[in-house]
Amino acid sequence: MENRAYALITGVFIIAIAAGVLLWANWLAGSPVQRLKYRVVSLRPITGLNEQAQVRYRGIDAGRVASIRLDKSNPNRILIGIEVDQDVPLTRGTYAQLGMEGITGIAYVHLLDDYTSREPPAKGRDGVPEIHLRPSFLDALTDNAEAVLRDGRVLISEITKLVNEENRERIGRTLSRLEDLIINLDISAKQLPGFIERTDARMQAWLNEKNRRNVEGVLANLNDATRGLPALVEETQQLVRDARALSTQASTLAAEATALARESQGTVHDVRSETLPKVNALADSVERSARRVGKLAEALERQPDSLLWGRGAARPGPGEEGFE
Q1: Which of 135, 258, 313, 320 has the CB geometry, 3.0–4.6 Å to 139, for a possible disulfide?
Q2: With helix as H, strand as E and coil as C, how does the chain read?
Q3: What is the pTM of this model?
């Protein structure tokens, strides 16, 4: 009887211990968390990322990595299955990057959002929403460094091709010629002050008082000739107008004389006393005008430069000062 009581007490005690452990475990676990499945698609290497790695949303722990595999239809794509808490607001503007845990090299999936869209993420062929992986700052820096290294290698190769033996000789000859040129420029620079002084002395000698007076006289004559040109042109035009008018009057008077000659002889006296004196006066005026025009033409023929410089002083006659 005592053995049965002892066994019963032992069993009840074990059951109580087991129930306490279950209650303590449930208290530690808290309420169960509901998570949703997503897929991160990467076209880049994901070094350091393993299953059960953390998934963070803007730095907050939001889930874990469930699986990592290659896409059978496109081996360039790496499919990373993640489980994210259902209260995390993922949208089509959400993208993923790989983060690193300090210096351990352990990677985690970092979810960020550019807020370009508030719609849910697009789903793949199997209905799982997909999020694309973008290069992080370190990835971009690594890519740029690789590109710089490639460009540097190309540049060094081209420089090596450029600086061959023949081009080195050309560069040496060019530097030698530049050195000779610099020496010549130095010599010329030393001679330049003396050249400037000699030029200045020659200019001062050429622009002496006599030459300056001659230049001033030439300029004065040029100004006088310029001022006289309009009057000369006007006088010539007036002579031409007078000659034309006199010619017209002569023609008119000749016609009148012919008409009067056909009339009675009583009018002959009028022609002789009135008309012929007018004709004679007209002829004298035309002759004087013609002489003036002739003298002007003769003077211009002898001294064409008189239009610019004016008439020169008349040569002194016998008995005048300066006559030779």
Answers
A1: 135
A2: CHHHHHHHHHHHHHHHHHHHHHHHHHHHHCCCCCEEEEEEEECCCCCCCCCCCEEEECCEEEEEEEEEEECCCCCCCEEEEEEEECCCCCCCCEEEEEEECCCCCCEEEEEEECCCCCCCCCECCCCCEEEEECCCHHHHHHHHHHHHHHHHHHHHHHHHHHCCHHHHHHHHHHHHHHHHHHHHHHHHHHHHHHHHHHHHHHHHHHCCHHHHHHHHHHHHHHHHHHHHHHHHHHHHHHHHHHHHHHHHHHHHHHHHHHHHHCCCCHHHHHHHHHHHHHHHHHHHHHHHHHHHHHHHHHHHHHCCCHHHHCCCCCCCCCCCCCCC
A3: 0.41
